[in-house]
Every structure is written in structure tokens, then in C-alpha cells.
Amino acid sequence: MTVRFRLALTVFLTGLATAIGVIVTVVIAFQRFDHETNFQRADAFLSRVVALHDDLLAQRERNPDEFGAFLRNLLLYEPDTQLYLLDADGTVLATTTTLQPGFKISMTPVREATAAAASGDRRTAAYVMGEDPLYMEADAVVAARALQRAVIRPSTAAQGYLYLVCSKGGQQASRWALLRSSLASPALASVAAVILLSTALAAWIIVTVTRPLRVLSDDMAAAARTGFGGNASMLSASATASAAAAGSTDEFSRLRGGLNTMLATLHMQWDELRRLDNFRRESVSNLSHDLRSPLTATVACLETLERRWQADADAGASSASSTPDTRSAEDLRLVAVALRNTHNAARMVRSLGDLALLDEPEFKLRPTRLDLSEVLDDITRRFADRAAVRGVALRFDQVGSAPPVAQVDVELFERAIANLLDNALKFTPAGQRIEVGAEHCGSRVRVTVADSGAGIRPTDLPQLFDRLYQSRVGTAPATSEEGKGLGLAIVKRICELHRGSVSVTSESGTGTVVTIELPAG
User: Fold this and answer.
1) What SS3 class is residue 156?
2) Distance between CA atoms of residues 427 and 475, nearest Å
3) CA–CA distance from 27 to each of 30, 35, 260 (Å)?
4) Could you give the count of Cα atoms lying within 13 Å of 263 in the half-sphere of its Cβ?
5) What is the DSSP letter of 440?
6) Cα dist. 446→312, 328, 372, 382, 437 in Å?
């Protein structure tokens, strides 16, 4: 549901509720007006009757049989109204209709109507609703007058009441029919016209007001689709042109201008970051490529020199008449250190080059669907001799009966597992073990490399896969054969390229478990 539709629906429902409220208010006002009119007419009628006939109680006592006809004659012009003569307790003495003898009327509305007539204040009692003896289930508008007997010393207490009930039938029904007919034709037509007019006006206002918002949302959607690969200058020019074309300074236009400016700034910053990132990758790749040749040549020279000096030392040692050359032994030790450091530098340069290659956006995998247990078993066998030399037990186990099948780049996957095994062998002492496992878990394939070596401190785990970071307990200095901590960074990047993940659980002194999860294939 769009913003425009919600706004239009809100305006329509508001207009409809307003129209219904107006109709209900008109009906209630008409009903109140009708009640007030009836009460005023009835009260005025009783005032005239009491003024002309101030001895109604005595008249009824003199001619009880003819008194009912007298009351009916008083109501010739109000055929739908009933008139009752009550005693002080509310018992009906005479009436214009037929009631059973001894019928009593509730005195509360009678006294209210009498008090309203005596006060003459229509603001406190606009009308009084009382009991209708003919329709006991509903109230009716009533009027009343207190009656006194014509005696020498009149009493202040009422000795009887003249009680008038405005019937709900007849003229009352015709008034309601008139109201319904009035509402059914012109009023409803006017209300419908007002609703349609207000809805059309609201729709025009909504379209006019929300047009910049729609343009803004289209711009944001286009930016989301294209990302930051577009031209920042073109975007800035487009934003300037659109702002100039709009020629408006309302909130939406300012918001659109601000967002376009922000997008243009982000585009320029993104281009600058991309340029710097390309420069970094190219520099690392070129540096790695340029350093490989001299390092390889240095290694070759040092190895040749080491072999020659070793041969000279062996020849001197075999001669019984010669003494060992201490200087040659020291030279051999220095050559061995230089050769070891050169090998480490060569491995680090190769790793930097590999990382630069893996970070290239154009780099593509060459996936192959295969059973990872076969690859893991082959890698384990290749590291078996090295593990045996170090006195470490190395084995591979497949967990479960389902084969761990996945789509992987074989070369990269083997490189990741080899890095993990190489890292585990460096920090697992003799007499301990390294276990490689593979398991099919639903839509994922889980590969684990667990060792019982030195473990990793908890504070080092968050930075474990950062580049050039080492955290193992007892890590040798940078000049040693352990390198500079690029192996796990390469593993993480390979897992990301395979849409997988890598995690580590470890405790100092108890060992480390590295878990790789890949999509099952």
C-alpha cells in the first residue's frame, strides 16, 4: 500500500465519518427540537385549561360520568394526546382513554414537569420525559399542572394534577417520516457530493504534495540498484538540473537536494576508496611479483653456498692431519639463519600475492562438485610424514554416513586446509594429536581441524583472522619459520569466496578447533 493510497483512504474515511457524524447530530438535534416544541405546546395548553377551569377537581366530583367526555372535548385539536386527572398520589381519576380503575402514574416526572412550569425557566428543563400509560415500555414528553380546590383557606400542597402525555404516534410519526424523506434525498445527495468533492480535492492535493516524494523514492531506488558504480559528476549534474527544474524551496525539494548531494559525495568518496584499494592491491601484487625473483635467486645462492661450505667442512673433517675450521662452522650457522629468514620472506611475499589475487573483484572460482572426504584424506596423507617427524598423531575421520559433498574450488580448498594443518603442526607439541573431520549437516558441510596444542587466549580470538596477526601462545619471533600470520587470513578469504564461514573455539593449554562451514552441493 503506497503512501498516496493511504493518505487518500485516510481523507475518504475522515470525510465519511464526518458525514455520518453530521447526520447523527442532525437527527439528535431534530429529536430534541421536536421534544422541546411538544413540551412548550403542551405546557401552554395546560396553562390555558387551568386558567379557564380552576375547579377541575370539584367539577369531576359533581359529574364523574360526564367528566371524561369533557376532557376529550378539550383535545379535539390534539387527537394523539392523552389527558389525565390525577389525585395527589398519582392515581388516575379521569382520562381521555380507557384504563383499568386504580391505575397509578409515577409521580417523579409529574413533579418535575410541575416544577418546570412553575419556574418558567426553559434552560434548566427544556422538556420532561415521563410515563405513558398506553405505552409503558417507552417514555414520552409530558406536561403537568398542580390543582387546588376552591376553598376559603387554600393549602400550599397540591391536591391533584392535570397530566398531559404527548403521544409518539400520529403527528410524531409523520414528523419522523418527514425527517427520513429529507435525509433520503437532498441531504444524502449533498453529503455524497461533499464527500466526492473533498475526496477529489484531497486526491489532487495528495498527488501534488507527494510528487516530489515519489521522485525522491525513485532516485533512491535507482541509487540502490546501481550502487556507487556510477559517475559522481553525472549524479551531481543531474541533481543540480532537477533542483533547477523544480524551482521550489519546499521541504521535499530541500530533502531531495540534500540526499542527492549526499549521494554525490558518497560517489566521490567511493571512487576515491576504490582507487586507493586498486592501488593497494596492484602495489602488493607488483611488490610480491618483484620480490619473488630476487628472493628466489638469493635462496638459490645461499643454498649453493651452504652445500659448498658443507662439502669443505666434511672434507676437512675427514682429513686426519687437519683440524676443524671454527670459522667455517660459524659461517655455516650464519648461512643457515640467512637461508631460513629468506625462506620465510619468500613465503610471506607469496602469501601477500595470493591475498592480493583473492581480493580482486574480477577473481572467479572454478568450482567442482566432489566428496570433500576424499580431498581431506589426501591432504592428511601428504602431511603425515611431517607430523610423524614432529611426533604428532594426525588422522582424518568422516562423521556420519552421508558424504560431505560440496561445490568447491579444489586448489583453493586444499590451500585452506593445508594452511590450517600447517598452523596446527606449528603449535602442537610432540605426543599430541591433530584430528581432521568432515560432516554433512543439512544444507551445510562442516569441516573441522582440531589440535591439542597450546591453545589461544580468549582476548586474541576476535582478531585471529586479521592479516599479519599472531596470537598463539609461544609464538616464535618474526624471524623464525612460523611466518607473519597470513595463513588464517587466506583461509577466511577462501571461505568467503565459497559463501561459507570459518570460526575458532579454543582455550589456552587445551587446544584449538577451527570449523569451516560450506554450502552443501
Assistant:
1) coil
2) 8
3) 5, 12, 55
4) 27
5) E
6) 54, 53, 10, 21, 8
Helix, strand, coil share (%) of the chain residues, nearest 5: 60, 15, 25
Asked if 105 contacts 86 with a C-beta cutoff of 8 angstroms, the reply is yes
Cell of 462: 576476535
Q: Using CA atoms, how far apart are residues 114 and 105, in angstroms rounded to an integer?
A: 14
pTM exceeds 0.70 for this model: no
Q: Give dist(CA 134, CA 97) in Å, integer.
A: 9
Cβ-defined contacts of 343-348 (< 8 Å, 24+) = 343/299, 343/481, 344/479, 344/480, 344/481, 344/483, 344/484, 345/291, 345/295, 346/292, 346/295, 346/296, 346/299, 347/483, 348/483, 348/484, 348/486
Q: Could you give the CA distance from residue 424 to residue 113 in angstroms, rounded to a whole number?
A: 104
What φ, ψ does residue 441 adopt, rounded to 5°? -125, 85
CA distance 479 to 59: 136
The dihedral over CA atoms of 479, 485, 491, 493, expressed in degrees to the nearest 10, equals -120
The DSSP result for 83-149, as a single string, is EEEEETT-BEEEESS---TT-B--HHHHHHHHHHHHH--TTT-S--EEE-TT-TTSEEEEEEEEE--
CA 97, CA 81: separation in Å to the nearest integer?
A: 10
Q: How far apart are the first and last CA of the chain?
A: 39
Query: For residues 191 and 197, what is the distance between their CA atoms, to the nearest angstrom?
Result: 10
For 478-509, how does the pLDDT look when each residue is reduced to its tens digit (9 = 90+)? 333 344 457 888 889 899 999 999 999 988 77
Q: Hunting for cell 391533584 — which residue is that?
A: 160
In angstroms, what CA-CA distances link 46 with 131, 142, 161, 273, 473? 17, 11, 11, 98, 112
The C-alpha cell that represents 437 in the structure block? 573431520
What is the C-alpha to C-alpha distance for residues 312 and 303, in angstroms, rounded to an integer?
14
Average pLDDT over all residues of the chain: 77
Cell output for 5: 493510497
Q: Per this entry, what is the length of the chain?
A: 521
pLDDT above 70 (res 44) = yes
User: Percent of the chain at pLDDT above 70?
Assistant: 73
**pLDDT at residue number 60:** 87
User: pLDDT of 81-134, one tens digit each?
Assistant: 888 998 888 888 888 888 888 888 888 888 888 888 877 665 556 788 888 888
d(CA 40, CA 84): 18
Per-residue H/E/C for 368-397: EEEEHHHHHHHHHHHHHHHHHHHCCEEEEE
* 287 residue type, one letter: L
Q: Are 315 and 355 in contact (CB under 8 A)?
A: no
Contact indicator for 513, 450 with CB cutoff of 8 Å:
yes
